[in-house]
Amino acid sequence: MLDSRSIALYVHIPFCETKCPYCDFNTYAGIESLIPDYVAALGTEIRRWGGLLDHPEVGTVFFGGGTPSYLPPDDIGSLMQAVFEAFEVYTAAEVTLEANPDDVTGARLGSYLESGINRLSIGVQSLDDRLLELLGRRHSASQAVRAYTAAVDAGFDNVSIDLMYGLPHQGLDSWEQTLSAAADLGPEHISMYCLTLEAGTPMSQWVDSGRLPAADPDLAADMYLAAEEAMERQGYRHYEISNWSQLGKESRHNLTYWRNQPYLGVGPGAHSYLAGSRFHNVKSPRVYTQRLEGGGNGTAPKGSLSDERIRSVPVVETVEPIDRRLEMAETMMLGLRLDTGVEAVTFEERFGTTLQHAYPDILHELESAGLLVTSEAGVRLTGRGRLLGNEVFSSFFGADEPPQA
Asked: In this predicted structure, what is the pLDDT of residue 70?
């Protein structure tokens, strides 16, 4: 668990060799010429925040995207150097880099380890070549297996793989075969996400036009239940709705999000949550880079982390203060994703009121519906509640301002 004084750092890499047809993240293909200036700008933002926040302690670093492994390894090294200069990085910090299987080579892996990366998150998505082609992925199932093996052989002892289910033309048998093959690899961590088609993505348009079949929610639910059973048989802890891990290998970075604790995001479109405010950067990598050319502009005003100080970073686009009611609702929504749920003592220490005092009617209704379990220790989702999580989470956002105890 992170120290209460530390923050988590997210570093966004928006480049991809090709963009997958289901992806709506802030990522781009065909702008490789921008990489050198972008890396310099990103280093500038990292160092600026280090000075603005007085070089805080960082317990986790996460390079996400996009495709961080698409960058030259030396660029990852220079960005890690900027992180070490700007922040007090824990000796035992978890430092993750997302990687595509076809980018994973022995030379790259050695460079990552030397720069301070100690955890890989490999975007496998499927171990069915037919589905990988549908998803627009550049790798094959055999390449994914080789990438995982190469990472372990290089010395990584904390490797996560991502898998997707609820895909067009994906049957339950195919999914169970992927689960079995993934378990045979024995990664320390597995994330499994149901395909969500966002408006405007090519795959969404293919479904709308009839080129691909629409999702079958009942089949997706069966796939989720199959994942739960398969992972339980292999001894994985189902510690979050979409994530399983071996003992002690939970994603410490993502636990920061799920516990609604402070984090800083750098790079275009990156979001942050610090000092009671949520804010995000301009989305365009080109505009982002231009605003930070020459080291940025302006001098940060002194004092606490006010809106004025946040906006002194030239790439920050919006700042939203988070009031007590919203912070409590978000803490419930995020915390209930965990197998431990929302702990009563932690909630009361944070908000000065008990769970039962804050949400008496909502907790009673959800428990009566078989979606929540309440106890002196706190509240958590039932198995049915995990399947209907969005319905549970939305309940807390319609609540009135919870009273002080």
From this structure: 96
Q: Nearest CA to 330 among 289, 273, 386? A: 273
With 80 as the cut, is the pLDDT of residue 401 above it?
Answer: no
Model confidence at 109, in pLDDT bands (50, 70, 90)? very high
Residue 405 has pLDDT above 60, yes or no: no
One-letter amino acid of 403: P
Nearest to 259 by CA among 383, 342, 379: 342
CA distance 134 to 196: 15
Burial class (CB in 10 A: 0-12, 13-18, 19+), 369: middle
Whole-angstrom distance, CA of residue 53 vs CA of residue 245: 33
Q: Which of 325-360 are b and which e, b meaning 16 or more Cβ less than 10 Å from the residue's Cβ? A: eebbbbbbbbbbbbeebbbbeebbeebebebeebbe
| Distance of alpha carbon 281 from alpha carbon 284, whole angstroms | 9
pTM of the model: 0.94
- CB burial of 117-131 (b: ≥16 within 10 Å; e: otherwise) equals bbbbbbbbbbbbeeb
Q: What is the DSSP letter of 300?
A: P
Sequence-ordered list of residues with C-beta below 8 angstroms from that of 178, at least 6 positions apart, any chain: 126, 127, 128, 163
